[in-house]
Amino acid sequence: MEIHHIKVQKSARYIIIGDVSTANQVVIILHGYGQSVTRLANKFSVLDTSNVAYIIPEGLHRFYTSGFSGDVGSSWMTREDRLVDIDDYVGYLNQLADALEIRSKMISVLGFSQGAATACRWVADGNIQPINLILWAGLVPPDLEFQSEGQNDALEPLRSLNLILAHSPTDAFRTEEMWKRQYEVLNHYQLVYTEFEYVGGHRIPIDEFNRLWREINPLPLD
User: Fold this and answer.
1) What is the rounded CA–CA span in Å between residue 26 and residue 49?
2) Can you list the alpha helix ranges (DSSP code H) found in 112-198?
């Protein structure tokens, strides 16, 4: 048995809140595993968009989150054929950045849960350079070095930004062992970071996002 791959065209969905063409800055939000991109967008739609636009891409793998009907969520990847999926979503996000012409903007990337690893791999690809990389209830993946082939330092993009680890002590998915391993990964990659503790468990409370934004953002939201 031989496994092969073929590139195909696929329509990818994304949501924009605000006006990308007139905004001074953009925030690209990468959702978590099984999350509804429309529900996530509804949460951020209450924010002022005078100077900022929010771009929320949907992962390429859509599925029913329970059984064969009901709520629909999306995923960026699974462990099956993972390197191919990583290559696909990095290419997809690069293509989206090109299509929306955002590279001249002040860019922040927020990855929630599974989206945090997605964000790290995308930024490490070096095709986009955000000012802020916010990993919300998510972690830096321990396998970024596979992207180093043919590059002097694939991790340099991650060392040239403001890396924020946002975590909640009531997050049901957070364990001490997990964070012990995370600090080992951060030290191994020599990544400088700051921590932001929020209230709200494994989700993104908008008031807590606003609190973080006021601390790190070079321009106000309004």
Assistant:
1) 10
2) 114-124, 156-159, 176-188
